[in-house]
Amino acid sequence: MGPGSLLSGLLSALVLATGSQPQEQLPRESHILNWNKFSGFWYILAVASDDQGFLPGREWRKLGASLVKVHKAGQLRVVLAFSRSQGCQAHTVILRKDRKKAMFRNTLKGVEGFHVLSTDYSSGVVYVRLGRAGHASRTLLFFSRQSMSSFPSMKKFVDICEILELANGVTVLPKDASCAHTIRP
Fold it and tell me: Which of 48, 87, 157, 181 could potentially form a cystine with 166 if both were Cys, beta carbons 3.0 to 4.6 Å apart?
């Protein structure tokens, strides 16, 4: 049994385990999230998206990476690095705190929402809504300070995917290569 079949078996077990549980309320980002504590470097271990073109083919996939920093009061600087067919590419955006909701956005750059749905500051689930020119997508990112995660943390990610009806689009990224070098401080 190779690492790919072991990984797909683990993911299947997680989806099956959550399928028999009643639907929960979607976690809401806390207004008291400590952004200074959340700031810093994160590996992106898994992705779930309703955008079919979000990830490249299997042969090009690597661990993603993110760098989150408090830019100014009420602003975040977010860098996301993902593997593409041309190699690792990083994108930077400055997000502004929404006045009414517990989220950040930059609609001019196509980011309708950046929400931290769950975190213990060693791992977290981030919900990103993108939209531009009539095309909208929803993406969940599983952040971790380490390049591996615990089963309970991954299960929490899959549970949230189920609630948002994104479980069919879950992809656990391979651990053997990473785009972290493009943004690591």
Answer: 48
Q: What tens digit of pLDDT does each residue of 34-73 get?
A: 999 999 999 999 999 888 766 656 666 788 899 999 988 8
Q: pTM of the predicted model, to two decimals?
A: 0.81
Task: Give the Cα separation of 36 and 170 in Å (integer).
Answer: 29
The answer to whether the CB of 107 falls within 8 A of the CB of 114 is no
CA gap 29, 10 in Å, rounded: 28
Distances (CA, A) of 67 to 24, 47, 82, 120, 181: 30, 16, 12, 17, 12
Task: Return the ∠ at Cα 45 (arms to 40 and 51), rounded to 5°.
Answer: 105
pLDDT single digits (tens) 115-136: 999 999 999 999 999 987 778 8
Beta bridge partners of 21: none
CB 114 within 8 A of CB 145: no
CA–CA distance, 81 with 91 (Å, rounded to integer): 6
The structure tokens 């994160």 sit at: 42
Give the bridge partners for 87, in sequence order.
Answer: 84
3-state secondary structure of 43: strand
